[in-house]
Design goal:
This protein has 2 helices and 6 strands. The chain has about 130 residues and is an alpha+beta fold. The chain is elongated and about 65 Å long. It has 2 domains: about 60 residues, no CATH class; about 60 residues, FAD/NAD(P)-binding domain (3-Layer(bba) Sandwich), CATH 3.50.50.
Length: about 130
C-alpha cells in the first residue's frame, strides 16, 4: 500500500525523500520586489520568509511549507519497570476493560496498546498529537 502511495506522490511531482531525516529548519527573509507588492501602498508590508531545510544526508532545500509526519512511540518505561506487560507495538497491553497485566492496574491514553476496532489487530492510538 505504501509503495503505491509513494509512486502516486512521485508521479505528481512530489520530491519524496525516504530514510532522510530533518536536521534543522532555518527561517530566511525574502526581499519582495515591487511586482510582488499589492495595490495597498498605504499599508506596510509584512515580512516574508522561506524555510531552509538541512537534511541528514548533508543536502539543503528551500521551501515555504514543511509537513512533518513522524511516528509516535509510547513512553512505557515506568510501566515496564513495574512489570506490566507490553504489547508487540510497545504499548501497555490492556484488555477490553482497560485492565493491564496486573489486575489492579488500569491504563488509558497514548501509552496503551489495544485491539483495533475493525481488524482486531494490536494498535496504538496517539491521542495528544498536535
Amino acid at each position: 500500500m505504501a509503495n503505491m502511495l509513494h509512486q502516486k506522490l512521485v508521479d505528481n511531482g512530489v520530491d519524496l525523500r525516504l530514510k532522510t531525516g530533518l536536521a534543522a529548519i532555518t527561517e530566511c527573509p525574502i526581499q519582495l520586489t515591487e511586482s510582488d507588492n499589492t495595490d495597498d501602498y498605504d499599508k506596510p508590508l509584512s515580512p516574508h520568509f522561506h524555510l531552509q531545510l538541512a537534511l541528514s544526508d548533508n543536502t539543503t532545500l528551500a521551501t515555504d511549507l514543511v509537513i512533518l509526519a513522524i511516528g509516535v512511540k509510547p513512553e512505557t518505561s515506568l510501566a515496564s519497570a513495574c512489570g506490566l506487560e507490553l504489547g508487540q507495538l510497545g504499548g501497555i497491553r490492556v484488555d477490553d476493560e482497560m485492565r493491564t497485566s496486573d489486575a489492579d492496574i488500569f491504563a488509558v491514553g497514548d501509552a496503551i496498546e489495544t485491539a483495533d476496532f475493525v481488524t482486531g489487530n494490536p494498535t496504538l492510538i496517539p491521542l495528544a498529537v498536535r
